[in-house]
Amino acid sequence: MARTKDKPSAPKEPGRMKQMWQVFLMTRRYDPSAQWLMLLSFLAPVLVGLGLALWLGEGNGFTIALWIVAGVLAGVLLALVILGRRAERAAYSQIEGQPGAVGAVLRSGLRGGWTGNEMPVAVNGKTQDAVYRAVGRGGVALISEGPVTRTQRMLDEEKRKVARVLPNVPITLISVGKDEGSIELHRLPATLRKTKRTLTKPEVLAVANRLNSLQTQLPIPKGIDPMKVRPQRGKMR
Question: Which pTM was predicted?
């Protein structure tokens, strides 16, 4: 009988702990202060738990142990929360200023009932400036990517288009960039969440369907996924 060749096994995905360690290394590289914030957020609950254990334990070893364990668990949880937020910010910092960065945030970083498309609704083929759209309880948000001096006209034009088909829906204009009056890329999700809520969930769905039915598909490359981007090993010249 002929010997059958063993099929190459698929590469194993890294375990949860290894993934977290990789995320921590990436975050520390782009945000050195993150490790100290994580350490502080871990130690603070532990010290509080230890203090409560000595104060309320009254020599009872079981009660003291419970307070210490509670402090450690709270510290670990708080440190992981800090790591998650700082890792997201570090990931966004790697793609900030690149074409498609806003689309990546709209695809993977929105919360609070907001939805967006990674494909822009308007784009300048020469400068790569673009305008994106998101829909949520706060109405319609138009987000520009590029210098304000070049994108303001694009924003105003898209606002007129939306206002024609949705005259009673609030429209918010947001500029992402380094110019005065603009916001940094990592602040985009929080800026959308702070928008005053004026629509109900059924109204949000109706608005999104109305806009999607009118949208023209543009042959534009998709955005970058900030959560999958790898740390840069060197500067490109």
Answer: 0.66
Contacts of 151 (CB under 8 A, 6+ apart): 129, 131, 144, 145, 175
Q: How far apart are CA 124 and CA 208, in angstroms?
A: 24
Residues 26-61: tens digit of each pLDDT: 778 877 888 888 899 999 999 998 888 888 877 777
Task: Report which DSSP code applies to 194.
Answer: T
* Phi, psi angles (nearest 5°) of residue 54: -70, -30
Distance CA 130, CA 213 (A): 20
> By C-alpha distance, which of 84, 110, 126 is closest to 191?
110
- Distances from the Cα of 111 to the Cα of 107, 188, 192, 208, angstroms: 10, 11, 9, 16
Q: How far apart are CA 151 and CA 129, in angstroms?
A: 7
pLDDT digit string (tens) for 95-116? 777 888 888 888 876 777 888 8
The string over 90-103, giving b where at least 16 C-beta atoms fall within 10 Å of a residue's C-beta and e elsewhere, is bbbebbbeebbbbb
Residue with tokens 């534009």: 220
